[in-house]
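call fold(seq) -> tokens
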Amino acid sequence: MKVAILAGGLGSRLDEITKLIPKPLVKIGNDPIILHIIKIYLKHNMRDFYIAIGYKGEEVAKFFLKKKKISRKIKKELKVGLKVIYSINNINCKITLLDTGLNTMTGGRVKRISKIIPDDTFLLTYGDGVANINLNKLINLHKKNKSMVTVTAVNPPARFGELKIKKSKVFNFSEKKSILQSWINGGFFVINKKFIKFIKNDKSILEREPLEKVAKIGQLSAYKHSKFWQCMDTKRDRDKLNYLVKTKKAPWIR
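ret:
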């Protein structure tokens, strides 16, 4: 199955870092996060990737092409889909890079990248999140439910510890941990192209009207992933991921 990765956003909450490089190239350990994401799919024998670039997209192209400069010819190819063979751990991956525009929103990027993916159903994720997800179970659930879209639901990590108080006395102190009663969008989608008609244009935000509409008509399924998941929105998130890699406790690598 083909895999699409949204890697064109500004990464504004990592501003001090993303002024110089795009978010997908921010390193976690020795590798940029986009390689960590690709390796998650490689574990499930998926080797055909479509990357929607935008902000500082030429830097992403340079990385996969192993070039210092991007020629005019390559810039033109990025507009229609530049195909690259890139080796990861001695496994050759097919990488197709598509310039989906600087200011295009997430829905618009999905609509654009879907046009060059030949299959009716494909996998989709963001270029800034990792998880020890079982992709085979995700795909099987999608097939079973026959929905247009299946999204991976994850428990949001809590930012603060929890105090339980009675009459000004703390009777329970819990260090911060995942909020098990709540579920949020963790990315890692399976998408049928019938869904694309719900995305109007470049200004469409995937997580708003398009997904809201398919949810209302009963065409959005959720695969519950209660194990490790972490996005990289902020420097704090990046530092946490770096710590996990450094201490060899990164669940998505095992």
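The chain has one domain: 3-156+183-246.
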